[in-house]
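Re: that chain you flagged

S.,

Sorry for the slow reply, it's been a week of failed gels. I finally had a moment to sit down with the sequence you sent. For the record, here it is as I used it:
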Amino acid sequence: MRKIPLFPLIILAIFLSPCPGLSGQDTLVYLFPGQGSDERLFKNLELPEGYDTVHVSYPVPSKGDDMYRYALRLLPEIDTGAPFVLLGVSLGGMICTELADIISPVHTILVSSAKTHLELPGRYTFNRSVPLNRIVPKGLIKASARILQGIVEPDRKHDKETFKSMLKEKDPLYLKRTVEMITHWKRTTYSERIVHIHGNNDHTIPVKNVKVDYLVEDGSHMMMITRAEEINGLIKEILQEELP
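Prediction finished late last night. Pasting the structure tokens below so you have them in one place:
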């Protein structure tokens, strides 16, 4: 019987064996939009090679849901069996803050958001004491949001139709109950591995109470779309950072 040399087989086996971290599978970045938006908020997002995206969709919160319980409902959408990243804007960032204590993302990135209720503006504290949202009909909450969005965040004009369309398609009950969740959010701590990008011209969540890692000059609450090139650059920088 002819003998087959072992050395070439060993070399071949090394090349064919899967190597940790070199499986060829992209790292998934789970995208959590804001309260009045959807996957279109990330239409200008460009990630470095080796990353792919998953859009997380929001169900209508159950009656009595708080931020933590709502975050738990979204867990089945996340594959934690492989490295992953959480990226959340506004309400999405608050949800990501909750999830970062439950699961172990490689990175958690917040844009135009808050990590605790202490970073939210005073109107939420007022609403907690005087819960107007509970007595205002859900349809009126939606109508008010559609009127106020362009007034509070004039930067919306750079992609007005997208922002209007996203908000128009929101279920009024969803809006009413997410307002309740934000108003009664009690979180006071957060993971030190969260990285926060914020604009100094954000009127929805003013930067004065926010601990920021990356400050975008003249960035508004809408900057995920309106300042996409800068945001993309910052996200790329964060994803390429060496972790402790």
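What I noticed first: The longest helix spans residues 138-152.

Talk soon,
D.
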